[in-house]
Amino acid sequence: MDLPSFPRLRGLARPAWQPYALAIALVSLAGCGHKAPEADAAMPVIAQPAQAADGAVAGRFPGEVHARYEMPLSFRVGGQLLERYADPGERVKQGQALAQLDPADANKQLANAKAALEAAEHRLEFATQQHDRDDAQFKQNLISQLQWQQTQDNYASALAGRDQAKQQYELAQNQLRYTTLVADHEGVITSRQAEVGQVLAAGQQVFGFAWMGEREVYVDVPESRVGGIATGQAAALSLPALPGRAYAAHVREIAPAADAQSHTYLVKLTVDHADPLLQLGMTADVSLQAGKAAVAAVIIPATALFHQGEHPAVWVVNPGDFKLELRPVTVSRYGERDVLLAAGLKAGERIVMQGVHTVSAGEKVTPIAPPHAEDAPQ
C-alpha cells in the first residue's frame, strides 16, 4: 500500500517525520482491514407448542334446577274464583282439582242447551213420523210430488236442528267442566297468581306448575362465551345442597337470542339420571366439558394472548424461517391463567408465551423454554 504524502512534513529531517508516517500508515492499514457489521442476531423469545384441550373443562357456570316441563295453569273460561284447593309447594296428582270458578252461569247455559236439545228431538220425532206416513202415501199416489218434497225438507231441517242442539249441549257441558281447574299431570305447584273472589279472564294464570320426572338446569351464558357451547355437549353438575353427589348432564337447548336486559343466552341442560333429591330451585355448579363443542380447541396461557385492535390474536413462530406471524384466533373461554381457543390455532404450533407486546410481525426469533417450570403449558 502506498503511503500518503505529507506536504507539511517535507521540511523536516528524515529521522524527525518518519515516526509520524509510520503511525499514520498503521491507522490506514487498520481501516482497510475493517469488515461490514454483521446482520442482527435473532431475538430470543419464550415460545412453546400450544396444547390440545380435549377433555378439558370448557367453562363453569352457576345454574338453577328446573323441571323439564314448566307451565302456567289457567281456566279455559272466565269467571269469579270461588275456591282454591292447592297451595305453592304442594305435590298434586293427575286429575286432582286445584281451583273452582263460580258455576252459576255455566249451569244456566247447560240447562238452556238441554231444553233446546229436548225441543229439537221432539221436532225430529214429529218430522220422522210425518216422513214415514207421507212416504207410504206417495208410493200409493195419494199425495202430490210437491207435498212429498215439503215433507222431506221438514225432516231434513228437523234432523239438522237436533244435531246442532246436541252440539250446543255438549259445548255447555264442557263449559261447566272447565269451571274446575284440574292437574293434567303429576307435579308440583310452584306459584300462585290468583286469589279467591278475583274475577278471571279465560287463560289468565292461576298457578305455576312443574311436572314431576325429568329435571333440567338453566344456565345464563355471556354472549362472549356462548360460541363455545353446542347442543349435546356433556357437563358435570355439583350442588352445594347435596355435598358429595355428582350428576351427569348434557346441553339440550340454547336460546336463539340473548335476553334483552342481561344480554345473556339461556342454556338448558338435561340431567341424565335425576333422582328425588334433586329439588326444584336448587343452585348448581355446572362444568361444561370441552368435547363435542371443542374438538379442535387448544389451550394457551393468558400471557400469550395479544389483541389486534378489538380482536384476539397470537404470535406464531414459523417453523421454516423462525419468523413471527400474527394470527387471529377465536376465544371460547377466558380463565384465570389460561385461555381456551375454539379456532385459529392448532395443537402443536409454537407460539410466543410471554412478551407478546415486545415483538413484531416478520421478526426473526429464537424460541427458548420458560425460565420457570410452572410457566410451561400443562
Automatic annotation (TrEMBL):
InterPro entries per UniProt: Beta-barrel_RND_2 (IPR058792), MdtA-like_BSH (IPR058625), MdtA-like_C (IPR058627), RND_pump_MFP (IPR006143)
Residue span(s) of domain Multidrug resistance protein MdtA-like C-terminal permuted SH3: 297-356
Main location as per UniProt: other
UniProt keywords, alphabetically: Coiled coil, Transport
Gene Ontology MF annotations: efflux transmembrane transporter activity
Record localization: Cell envelope
Domain of life: Bacteria
Domain named CusB-like beta-barrel: residues: 218-290
Domain Multidrug resistance protein MdtA-like barrel-sandwich hybrid: 76-206
Annotated GO CC locations: efflux pump complex
One Pfam family this sequence matches: Beta-barrel_RND_2
Coiled-coil regions listed: 110-137
Family the entry assigns: Belongs to the membrane fusion protein (MFP) (TC 8.A.1) family.
Name the record gives this protein: Efflux RND transporter periplasmic adaptor subunit
Species of the source: Dyella choica
